[in-house]
Design goal:
This protein is an alpha+beta fold. It is built from four helices and four strands; from the N terminus they run E-H-E-E-H-E-H-H.
């Protein structure tokens, strides 16, 4: 068991950025027009996410202007929410790491020495294509996520992660214990028990084939969705992927 502790430093760094979430039917052009009246530094959208999320840079060195910008955005019918972008630092997270010897690369060329799970924790020592070094910390911040969960109060520490991919082998021995089960659904009765619009979605839903069986359909034996799901739910038993 990992000992629960507080992993976050007390210092929060405020940036000039305001994270703005628009209402579903809001016109982004109207937000840009509103921003022009607020004397902001820049307006940028999260195009890759496509989730109506925008960043507005407002000058915090002018507190009155910054607060006025926040208030007008909060009161705008276009905006669902607006929050300051705050950066915080993490303390040492070594105690949150699993005991998998293949997790961290030790350096040197040779498959046995490589970090074959570099997407979890990339320390920049793994040599990629053409023997070139990889970019340090170009990963999914798995250690930081594990650390965050371990710092949560109470036991057990439950975190639900939704994965959009090719599917999941929900019967895999490395995933069974942690596989999410819909508490409002009765398996196999062909009834939408929880009235969410999907019948028998006990472990998720197959939106490609419109059925309640999310078994991985990737033609590759490993399965892309299965591999990604491993990163979220697997047990620390050296079977499959770590954690």
């Amino acid at each position: 068991m990992l000992q629960s502790k507080t992993y976050f430093s007390e210092d929060l760094t405020m940036t000039n950025d305001l994270v703005v979430v628009l209402r579903r039917n809001a016109d982004p052009g109207d937000l840009r027009q509103l921003a022009q009246t607020l004397d902001v530094l820049a307006v940028q959208d999260f195009e890759q996410l496509g989730m109506q999320r925008w960043t507005i840079k407002a000058d915090r060195s002018r507190p009155e202007n910054w607060l006025r910008c926040v208030e007008q955005l909060k009161n705008s019918p276009l905006v669902r929410s607006v929050v300051p972008d705050q950066h915080f630092s993490l303390d040492d997270f070594s105690s949150a790491l699993p005991n998998d010897p293949l997790l961290i690369v030790k350096g040197g060329w040779g498959y046995e020495d490589q970090n074959i799970q570099w997407s979890l924790i990339n320390n920049g020592l793994f040599e990629g294509s053409f023997s070139s070094p990889t970019l340090y910390d170009a990963d999914i911040d798995a250690a930081e996520a594990w650390q965050f969960v371990e710092a949560l109060p109470g036991e057990p520490k439950e975190t639900i992660v939704a994965v959009f991919d090719t599917g999941i082998d929900w019967a895999h021995p490395d995933l069974q214990a942690n596989m999410w089960t819909n508490p409002g659904e009765v398996a196999g009765n062909r009834i939408d028990d929880d009235n969410n619009g999907y019948i028998d979605d006990v472990h998720g839903y197959d939106f490609a084939n419109h059925d309640p069986d999310p078994m991985d359909s990737d033609p590759e034996s490993s399965g892309h969705g299965l591999a990604d799901r491993h990163k979220c739910e697997t047990r620390c038993d050296r079977t499959g992927l770590s954690r």
